[in-house]
Design brief:
About 5% of the residues lie in helices and about 35% in strands. The protein has one domain. The longest helix has 4 residues. The strands form three sheets. It has an eight-stranded antiparallel sheet with strand order 3-4-8-9-10-11-2-5. A two-stranded antiparallel ribbon has the order 1-12. The termini are close together. β6 and β7 form a beta hairpin. With about 140 residues, the protein is mainly β.
């Protein structure tokens, strides 16, 4: 059985745990920029996922509070449609698939309100997310 094609408006759902970081990300809709449409919505193509999580998001990592991170989505192979060469000019369609990886990178360290010290853990940390399709008529694969 195939996976549902992701279309314009499908929300990214990001789980809040990134190692010791807690990042609250409200559902962010993807903007489908593909040429094809399903149920009146443009399909999401590879690269559209990069636009959905622009900006920074607040994080806490006890006892540190109110830092900011950037998030980057890394799709898994089951979320990228295999497209025949004759239709590749439309772009590679994004699929629901399973969960994708989201990497958080500190932009501004959180601060310990008791001591004023910054969070010492600044390296990238992985998290998970998933698409919630808004159309259930077309599957691919």
């Amino acid at each position: 059985m195939g996976a549902f094609a992701i279309t314009d408006g499908a929300p990214f759902m990001v789980q809040p745990a990134f190692g010791n970081r807690l990042v609250i990300v409200p559902p962010q809709p993807i903007t489908g920029l593909g040429m094809a449409q399903i149920c009146g919505r443009r399909v999401a193509v590879l690269g559209n996922e990069k636009q959905a999580l622009l900006g920074t998001f607040l994080y806490n990592a006890a006892p540190y509070m109110a830092g900011q991170v950037k998030l980057v989505v890394n799709l898994e192979p089951d979320q990228i449609a295999q497209v025949a060469p004759q239709v590749s000019s439309m772009g590679t369609v994004v699929l629901k698939g399973q969960k994708y990886q989201v990497i958080s990178t500190v932009v501004q360290p959180a601060i310990n309100p008791g001591s004023g010290d910054p969070d010492p853990v600044l390296g990238p940390m992985p998290g998970m997310g998933e698409f919630l399709p808004v159309q259930f008529c077309v599957t691919v694969g």
